[in-house]
Amino acid sequence: MTFVESILSVLRQFGWWDLLDVLIVAVAIYEILKLVRGTRAVQMGLGAGLLVLLFYVSRWGHLETVNWIIRNVVGYLVFALIVLFQADIRRALAHAGRTPFGRYFARAQRAEETIEEIVVAAGLLAGQHVGGIIAIERSIGLRNYIEGGIPLDAMVTADLLVTIFRPGTPLHDGAVIIQGERIAAAACFLPLTVNPRVSKDFGTRHRAAIGLTEETDAVTVIVSEETGRISLALDGGIDSGLTDGTLRDRLRELLATRRRESRELSRQAYD
Questions:
Q1: What pLDDT shows up at residue 39?
Q2: pLDDT tens digits for 60-71?
Q3: Which of 129, 159, 172, 260 is the most buried (most CB within 10 A)?
């Protein structure tokens, strides 16, 4: 049988499960190489390769002492590598958890954390009578307003939100826009509503929040500087005098609705 015939014979026996087996191994090797690139693991891998090479050379050359040392040291090296590379191992396991299935629960957890940080920040601002306006992007993008502000791209934390709106800071004048689970920009200027039915008691901050929700489906949280009341604007309307618990429940409901609508749009795009 010629070499070509032997290759064809192997290919004829190659099934779908064999292909899946090869693909899984290839993807695993590729991901491992990406993880170790630029880290100490590259040098350690080279050292391990040299150790393996030395082991086979010692067997081929009958270097009994060298072979004995390698065979007895390798068992302890495994535990040493676990200790030395514990940070890299954690990073690899975290990377493996960022699968589509794992990302779904991670997004849900981050969204819940984002809501909690917004509620805590609103409560702190209200208690100190510090005005603030936080716009949360939903299905309609807020890129035009983000570009007009100061880009941040920071994690949503109550401390950061309170610091931004503290009087005297360069970013306190304007709105914070949250995109996804991150603060996209601060000091953003929003369009004022021209609806004559809006109460005259509302100032510029509340009118800007209503104006944004008239043009987009964003959710806007407003804290009044004069009264310390927390309000929520949506679809051109506004609810005032919200408690921390009410605000939390409303945001959970509205942002969960947004996630469901996004999934529906994604499914329709693939259908």
A1: 58
A2: 877 878 778 777
A3: 172
CB atoms within 10 A of CB 47: 11
Structure-block tokens of residue 229: 């009341």
Q: What is the mean pLDDT of residues 148-168?
A: 92
Number of domains in the chain: 2
**If you ran DSSP here, which 8-state letter would residue 85 be given?**
T
Instruction: For residue 143, give both structure tokens.
Output: 């890129």
CATH of the domain at 216: 3.40.1700.10
Residues 94, 97, 99: CA angle, nearest 5 degrees: 135
What's the token pair of residue 97?
């958890």
User: What distances in angstroms separate CA 116 from CA 49, 53, 222, 244, 267, one per listed residue?
Assistant: 50, 55, 15, 10, 29
* Domain match, 86 and 112 both: no
pLDDT in tens, 232-243: 999 999 999 999
CB 205 within 8 A of CB 224: yes
pLDDT at 73 over 70: yes
Within 10 angstroms of residue 219's Cβ, the number of other Cβ atoms is: 25
Q: Do the Cβ atoms of 156 and 117 come closer than 8 Å?
A: yes
Of 76, 96, 116, the residue that ends a domain is: 96
Q: Does 255 lie in the same domain as 177?
A: yes
Closest alpha carbon to 146 in 182, 107, 108:
182
Q: pLDDT tens for residues 8-44?
A: 666 666 667 777 777 888 887 777 666 666 555 666 6
| Token duo for residue 120 | 């805590």
Query: Which of 38, 61, 96 delimits the end of a domain?
Result: 96
The reply to whether 117 and 87 lie within a common domain is: no
